[in-house]
Write a structure and sequence with these properties.
Helix content of chain A: 10-25%
Distance between the termini of chain B: 55 Å
Largest sheet of chain A: 5 strands, antiparallel
CATH superfamily of chain A: Ferrous iron transport protein A (FeoA)
Structural class of chain A: alpha+beta
Low-confidence stretches of chain B: 28-38, 169-184
Number of strands of chain B: 13
CATH architecture of chain A: Roll
Radius of gyration of chain A: 11 Å
Mean pLDDT of chain A: 90
Oligomer: heterodimer
Mean pLDDT of chain B: 84
Number of domains of chain A: 1
Radius of gyration of chain B: 33 Å
Number of helices of chain A: 2
C-alpha cells in the first residue's frame, strides 16, 4: 500500500521510501523514515499535505506513490 | 580581521535564523516565511562585540550533498571551521530540527543550541527539558524567541564564550585553549552516541582507518559520511583501494543485517536516537495532539481542490488593482512621482484650493489652469505658423487632442495668457527636476551642460525612479504573501499545472515578481532547488511584460491601436503563452529532458506578517531596482545623450540635426537586422538597441529620433516614422512593439541572468533563446500580417513560415522516450 491511497484525515505508519536517491534522502531528513506515523491533512488531485512530526509537508502524487505505508 | 571569532548560525529553513541574525547584527537581511530564502552565506558583526562575526548559513535540513544550500553550508562548516556553531532550532517542531542538530554536534565544534519560538511553545502548553537535550547532544541549550527579541543575545554571548575557551559543551573538556588540533587536541571530542550495534561498530572501525587524514575534532562526522558512501568526502580523503574494500565489507554487513541502504540506516538510527531523547525530554500538551491547527484549517480552504485556484487568481487581481489599475493607488503614486516629485513639483495634499486671486483662473483647479495655458500656447503657435487649426498632445502617449479652430481674436486672447503659478493653488513643493534645472540656471552653466544633466543624466534616472511606486506595490504585496506563508501554498497549488511544461510550482513566484521588474525576478529563481526547472524559469520569467515594458505598450496602444483596445491586455497573454509554450518546447530538448517527477515542500505555519519582515523583503528587492538606476542607467543615458547630440567631429547638434549624429550612423549600420521585421530604418534600430539599456528607453529614443518626420506632435512624428519605413505602418509598429517586449530583457536583467545561471554557456543560451523568440515573433507578426493584408509573398515571408513551422514542431513533437517512465 502506498501513501497515495490514503484519504484526507487518515493516518498510516511509514514502511519504506523508494525511488530517486536525492528525493528519498530529502524526505528522510524531513522525517519520512520507517516507523513514523503520518497524517493526511489535505488532499487534492492526488497531491497531498502531510503532517509529519509537527511540520506540514506538501508532496505530489508521484512522490506519494513512492512511499510505502501500513495501517496504524 | 585575523583575530576575529567566527560564529556560524545554522538551522532548518523557517526556524527563525535570519530573524535572529538581524536581531544580533542589526543588518537588513532577507527574511521570508518561505523555505530556502538565504542561499548565499552572509556575515554581520555581533552588536556590542566588534571582534565577533556572525555568519548566516542557508537554511538546511541536513548536511548531505543533495542541494546547493546543503553544499554551501557543509563546505563552510567543515573546511573553514567556525569557532563555534549557534544552532537555531524551532521549538514547536523540535524532533525534525534535531535531525540537523545531531549532525552539527558530530562536527565536534563548540555549539550552542538556541531553541526558538519558546513563546509559542509555552502558549501551546508543551514542555521541553533543555538539560536532557544538552547532555545527550553535548552542547549548551538555551530557549529564545527571535521574533520577540528574547534570549538571542544571551545565546550568542554564550557561543562567543565557548569559542573563546574552545569549550565543547558540557561533555569532556580538553586541555589547552581552543578546539581542533591546531590548538593541540590530542583525542577526539565527545560526540553524541547516536548509533547502535553493528553500525556503531562499523563507524568506529572507519574512524580508525581515516585517523590522521581528517581533523581530529570532526572525525566522527567524516566517518559517518564514509559509511554513507558520500562520494565527495571519500574522494577528498583519498582512501586506498585496500582500505576502501575493507570499509566496504563493514558497510555491506550492516546493510545485510538491517535490510536497508547505508544512508537510510544512518537516517533511521538518527531518528531513533531523537525519538528516545524526545521520550525523555519533550512533554507535548495532550489536549493539542492530533488536532487540526489554525494553519490546517486555513489550508483546507486555500488549497481546496476547487477553490484554490480562484482564491489565488483573486489575490492576483487585488495586486493588479493596487499596482496598475486606473485610479488605483499605484497609478496615483506613479503620477505623483513622475509629474510631481521627480519633475516640476507637487501640491501638498489637503492644501489645494481654487485660485480666486487671478481673474483668469477664477474658480479653477491648477490642472485645468495648466491645460488652458497649454491650449493658449498651442493657439499662438498654430496661428504664427499660419495654420487654422490647433491641438495639444498628451505628454506620455504622444496622443493628440481634438482640434479647435484658430482665428485672430483667439490668437490675441491667447497671447495674453500667463503661465499659472502653482503656489497660488495651494502649498507647492518643488520637484527634484525643477530643483536641478533651477540650480543649473542660477549657476549659469552653458546650455550643453544643462541639456546633458537635465535630458541626459537626470532624465534617464528619473524614468527608472518613476516606476518605483508600481514596483514597490507589487513587491510589498508579494512580500506580504510570502511572509504570512501563502506563497509556499501557491507553489504547491501551481505545481500540478506548471509541471506539465517543465517548470516547478516554485516558478510562479519569479514570474509574478517579473511583472514588476525582471531583475529581482531572476534572482528569485534561487529558491527552486531542481536545477533544470530553475534554469528554465530564469530563461522564461522575463517574458512577462515588466513595469518598464508597460510604457512601450501604453504608447503604442495609444498611437496605433486605439480601436484595438485588447492589444495591451493581449501582450500579457502573449507573455504567459510564451512561458507555457517555451516550457513545453524546452522540456522536449535534450538539455531539459527527464525532469524529476517529485515535489516535496515544507509548508510553514501561517503567521501574521511582521512589519520588519515585509519591509526587509520589499526593500531588498527594490534596492536592486534602484541601484540599477544609479549604476547602469546613469552612465548609459549619458552615453546615449552623447551619441544623440554630437557628430563624429564632436560638434554639438541641434535637435533637428539628429540625422548627422553618431547615433544615426550606429543605427544605420545595424538597420539591416531589422529589415525583415518591417522597421529596418536607423531610427527603429537605434530605439531597439537603446531599449536594451532600459526597456522604457525605446519610447524616449523613438520620440527623439522621429523628430525630423512630418507632423506637428511627437505622436504624429512617430506615426509618420512607421509610415515611412513600411506600407503597413500598423503592422510595423506592432512588430516593433512585440520585438522590444519579447527579446532579451534590459542589460541589467541579462547581467543577473548570467550570474544566476552560474555559467557563460547557460547565460548565452538564455539570451540566444530570448532573442530567437522575440525575433521570430516580430518576423511572423509582420510578414504574415503583410501577407494577409494583401502585401504579397516574399523571401522574408517564406522565412517566417519556416521559422513558425520549426516552432510548431518544437512544441508539438512527441516527447523523448526516456522522459516517460
Amino acid at each position: 500500500m502506498t501513501l497515495a491511497t490514503l484519504k484526507e484525515g487518515e493516518r498510516a505508519r511509514l514502511v519504506r521510501v523508494s525511488g530517486d536517491d536525492a528525493v528519498k534522502h530529502h524526505l528522510g531528513a524531513l522525517g519520512f523514515v520507517a516507523g513514523t506515523v503520518v497524517r493526511v491533512v489535505g488532499a487534492s488531485y492526488g497531491n497531498m499535505i502531510l503532517a509529519v512530526h509537527e511540520s506540514r509537508i506538501a508532496v505530489n502524487e508521484a512522490t506519494a506513490q513512492e512511499i510505502e505505508i501500513e495501517a496504524v | 580581521m585575523a583575530n576575529s571569532i567566527k560564529i556560524a548560525l545554522a538551522g532548518n529553513p523557517n526556524s527563525g535564523k535570519t530573524t535572529l541574525f538581524n536581531a544580533l547584527t542589526g543588518s537588513e537581511q532577507y527574511v521570508g516565511n518561505w523555505p530556502g530564502v538565504t542561499v548565499e552565506k552572509k556575515d554581520g558583526i555581533l552588536a556590542g562585540h566588534r571582534e565577533v562575526v556572525i555568519q548566516d548559513l542557508p537554511g538546511i535540513y541536513s548536511l548531505s550533498p543533495y542541494s546547493a544550500e546543503e553544499k554551501v553550508s557543509r563546505q563552510f562548516l567543515v573546511e573553514e571551521g567556525p569557532d563555534a556553531i549557534l544552532n537555531i532550532v524551532d521549538g514547536t517542531n523540535i524532533e525534525r530540527n534535531l535531525y540537523l542538530s545531531t549532525q552539527l554536534a558530530e562536527l565536534g565544534l563548540p555549539m550552542v543550541m538556541a531553541v526558538n519560538m519558546m513563546d509559542v511553545v509555552r502558549k501551546n502548553g508543551d514542555k521541553i527539558d533543555f538539560e536532557k537535550i544538552a547532555k545527550a547532544l553535548r552542547c549548551e541549550v538555551v530557549g529564545i524567541s527571535a521574533l520577540k527579541n528574547e534570549g538571542g543575545q544571551e545565546a550568542a554571548e554564550k557561543a562567543v564564550a565557548m569559542a573563546k575557551c574552545g569549550e565543547q559543551g558540557i561533555g569532556k573538556r580538553e586541555e589547552g585553549r581552543g578546539n581542533g588540533e591546531r590548538r593541540g587536541l590530542r583525542r577526539a571530542p565527545e560526540v553524541p552516541h547516536v548509533f547502535t550495534g553493528s553500525v556503531e561498530h562499523a563507524i568506529a572501525h572507519i574512524e580508525e582507518s581515516i585517523q590522521g587524514k581528517v581533523p581530529l575534532r570532526s572525525i566522527r562526522w567524516y566517518a559517518i559520511k564514509v559509511f554513507e558512501r558520500d562520494r565527495e568526502i571519500i574522494n577528498r580523503l583519498g582512501l586506498g583501494v585496500g582500505e576502501m574494500k575493507h570499509i566496504e565489507e563493514h558497510i555491506r554487513d550492516c546493510e545485510k543485517e538491517l535490510g536497508d541502504d547505508a544512508e537510510s540506516i544512518i537516517t533511521n538510527q538518527r531518528y531513533d536516537f531523537i525519538q528516545r531523547l524526545m521520550d525523555k525530554s519533550l512533554a507535548l500538551n495532550e489536549k493539542r495532539k492530533g488536532k487540526a491547527t489554525l494553519s490546517d484549517r486555513i489550508d483546507k480552504v486555500v488549497t481546496h481542490r476547487i477553490w484554490a485556484i480562484p482564491i489565488f487568481i483573486l489575490s492576483l487581481c487585488a495586486m493588479w488593482w493596487l499596482a496598475v489599475a486606473e485610479n488605483g493607488p499605484g497609478t496615483l503614486l506613479t503620477d505623483w512621482a513622475n509629474d510631481g516629485f521627480l519633475a516640476d513639483g507637487w501640491h501638498l495634499p489637503f492644501t489645494t484650493h481654487e485660485c480666486r486671486e487671478e481673474g483668469r483662473y477664477k474658480g479653477m483647479e491648477f490642472e485645468d489652469a495648466q491645460e488652458e495655458f497649454a491650449k493658449a500656447e498651442a493657439t499662438v503657435q498654430a496661428w504664427e505658423a499660419g495654420e487654422k487649426k490647433a491641438s495639444i498632445e498628451d505628454e506620455e502617449t504622444g496622443e493628440a487632442s481634438d482640434e479647435w479652430d484658430v482665428d485672430e481674436a483667439a490668437y490675441n486672447a491667447a497671447k495674453e495668457a500667463e503661465e499659472p503659478d502653482p503656489s497660488q493653488f495651494g502649498v507647492w513643493v518643488p520637484g527634484i527636476g525643477a530643483l536641478i534645472t533651477g540650480a543649473l540656471e542660477r549657476s549659469g552653466v552653458s546650455d550643453t551642460v544643462k541639456s546633458l544633466v537635465v535630458d541626459g543624466a537626470w532624465g534617464g534616472v528619473a524614468t527608472v525612479l518613476g516606476f518605483v511606486p508600481v514596483i514597490f506595490i507589487v513587491f510589498l504585496f508579494l512580500a506580504f504573501l510570502e511572509d504570512c506563508g501563502y506563497m509556499a501554498r501557491v507553489a504547491f497549488i501551481m505545481d500540478r499545472i506548471f509541471r506539465k511544461f517543465g517548470l516547478s510550482g516554485k516558478s510562479f513566484i519569479p514570474i509574478l515578481i517579473g511583472k514588476g521588474c525582471g531583475v529581482p525576478a531572476v534572482m528569485a529563481t534561487r529558491t527552486i532547488e531542481n536545477e533544470r526547472a530553475r534554469r528554465m524559469t530564469t530563461i522564461l520569467a522575463t517574458f512577462i511584460p515588466c513595469g518598464a515594458k508597460t510604457v512601450i505598450i501604453a504608447m503604442f496602444a495609444a498611437l496605433f491601436f486605439r480601436e484595438q483596445w485588447y492589444v495591451a491586455a493581449l501582450m500579457d497573454v502573449v507573455g504567459i503563452a510564451i512561458i507555457i509554450l517555451g516550457g513545453v518546447a524546452l522540456k522536449k530538448t535534450r538539455l531539459f529532458k527527464d525532469e524529476a517527477a517529485s515535489f516535496v515542500l515544507e509548508l510553514p505555519a501561517y503567521h501574521p506578517p511582521t512589519v520588519s519582515g515585509v519591509w526587509h523583503h520589499t526593500w531588498n528587492r527594490l534596492k536592486g531596482y534602484i541601484l540599477k538606476a544609479g549604476l547602469i542607467i546613469f552612465p548609459a543615458c549619458v552615453f546615449l545623450w552623447f551619441v544623440m547630440h554630437f557628430d563624429w567631429s564632436l560638434n554639438l547638434l541641434a535637435d533637428e540635426e539628429i540625422e548627422k549624429s553618431i547615433l544615426h550612423d550606429l543605427g544605420s549600420w545595424i538597420a539591416w537586422f531589422f529589415e525583415p521585421l518591417g522597421f529596418g530604418s536607423w531610427q527603429g534600430a537605434a530605439a531597439s538597441v537603446s531599449a536594451e539599456i532600459a526597456k522604457e528607453q525605446a519610447t524616449a529614443t523613438l520620440g527623439l529620433v522621429a523628430a525630423n518626420m512630418d507632423g506637428s506632435t511627437t505622436g504624429s512624428h512617430i506615426q509618420a516614422l512607421f509610415g515611412a519605413v513600411s506600407d503597413f505602418p500598423k503592422l510595423a509598429a506592432l512588430s516593433f512593439m512585440v520585438f522590444n517586449l519579447f527579446v532579451p530583457p534590459c542589460m541589467v536583467a541579462i547581467a543577473v541572468t548570467f550570474r544566476e545561471m552560474g555559467s557563460q554557456k547557460w547565460g548565452w543560451f538564455a539570451v540566444g533563446f530570448q532573442l530567437f523568440v522575440g525575433y521570430a515573433l516580430a518576423l511572423s507578426v509582420y510578414r504574415l500580417g503583410v501577407l494577409f493584408a494583401g502585401g504579397g509573398f516574399g523571401v522574408w515571408t517564406a522565412l517566417a513560415v519556416v521559422v513558425d513551422l520549426f516552432c510548431l514542431w518544437a512544441i508539438f513533437r512527441p516527447a523523448r522516450k526516456e522522459a516517460s517512465k
